[in-house]
Write a structure and sequence with these properties.
- The protein is α/β, with parallel strands linked by helices.
- It has one domain: Rossmann fold (3-Layer(aba) Sandwich).
- It is built from eight helices and ten strands.
- The strands form two sheets. A six-stranded parallel beta sheet has the order 1-10-7-4-2-3, sandwiched between helices. Strands 8-5-6-9 form a four-stranded mixed beta sheet, with helices on both faces.
- The longest helix has 19 residues.
- The relative contact order is 0.21.
- The model has no long low-confidence stretch (mean pLDDT 96).
């Protein structure tokens, strides 16, 4: 085990302990393969499963594993009209499992997220019976203030580039605190505690995943 891997493991143990006091269930996996296996262990066969936009869920292999697994998939990408999307969102809010990542996680166990349309953070806060979050250790920050700064300065610019958004950060590579039409920093959500014990499950991964 390298010093970096050992540090990740110790850091994750501290965060998981702090998750407990916030009624969040935490796990640590050293790599994406074991993280995907852990996630699949948490999802019973036949469960309805949906997800929010997440490069971590895609890059880890979890998305492909779920789509090819024995689950009832609710795929929002299949919506062809606004009416289709509305129907799918109604199904997602009643789903058994919702998969996502988090933009940042604090050492004290808080989850920091900024969203463009609000659907991802809405389902994190309410609706699906279980939320499984897959997060690389590159998302760890010291506190909430650092978390929001991380999202705006580190995560958002590559995301606006990926989504072909016409925002100042796409050009400069850093947050300009804009109110442009294409802004994706519209909803700021801090999860300090899960009101339902164990509803939110966070799998910390000893790799860099997502933005």
């Amino acid at each position: 085990m390298t010093p970096k891997q050992l540090s990740y493991e110790k850091t994750a143990a501290t965060i998981i302990k702090n998750f407990e006091k916030r009624q969040i269930k935490g796990y640590y996996c050293p790599d994406s393969a074991s993280a995907v296996q852990k996630a699949l262990e948490l999802i019973p066969e036949g469960s309805s499963v949906a997800w929010g936009g997440s490069m971590s869920v895609i890059d880890s292999g979890l998305m492909a594993a779920v789509k090819n697994g024995p689950y009832q998939i609710i795929d929002r990408d299949l919506a062809k009209t606004p009416q289709d999307m509305k129907k799918l969102y109604a199904e997602i809010v009643c789903s058994d499992y919702f998969l996502m990542s988090t933009n940042a996680v604090t050492m004290d166990g808080e989850l920091i997220n900024i969203d463009g349309r609000g659907n991802r953070v809405a389902f994190l806060c309410f609706g699906p019976s279980n939320v499984i979050i897959l997060a690389g250790m590159n998302k760890v920050v010291s506190d909430a203030e650092s978390g929001f700064k991380r999202v705006r300065d580190i995560a958002t610019p590559p995301n606006t580039t990926r989504l072909n958004k016409n925002t100042p950060c796409t050009v400069t590579g850093r947050c300009e605190d804009c109110l442009s039409p294409d802004c994706i920093c519209n909803e700021f959500v801090l999860i300090r505690r899960s009101g339902i014990p164990g509803r939110i499950k966070v799998i910390l991964v000893g790799e860099e995943l997502g933005y």
